[in-house]
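Posting here for the record, re: zinc ion.
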Amino acid sequence: MPELSDIYSEVILEHNRHPRNRGRVESPTHESHCDNPTCGDTIDLSLRVKDGRIEDVKFLGEGCAISQASASIMTQMIKGMSVEDAETLEAEFRRMLLEENYQPDAAMLGDLIALQGVKKLHARVKCAVCAWHALDAALSGAATVSTEEK
Ligand code: ZN
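Prediction output follows.
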């Protein structure tokens, strides 16, 4: 079994200590809440999308370092992106965590690559994807989502 210390890389710890984009955006066009009951993580995501571009995105949440760091890095990366590019990034992130022997596109993933080690601890994958479930749900107009549903 891998040690938890392998999983909690410096990048994850730093984002957990100093989360980026915490709060709720002004005049959100999309909002969603994700629960991860297996760990007790919650993410409340709000976005303001204009002309197909994510103008602003923020999150509030509680839970483990992995869940909060994943949300923090996600908001940092998708802010200013087109919705289409954010969805491409999400697909790559999910493949990194869910597909056996997948070689992720490190250039595209940026700091998200720090979460690659989570793959080794199966139960923690849900922590890492909670924010992304919230993103998916928000963009498709759903108010809530659970990691148990996907
Ligand atoms: Zn968690």
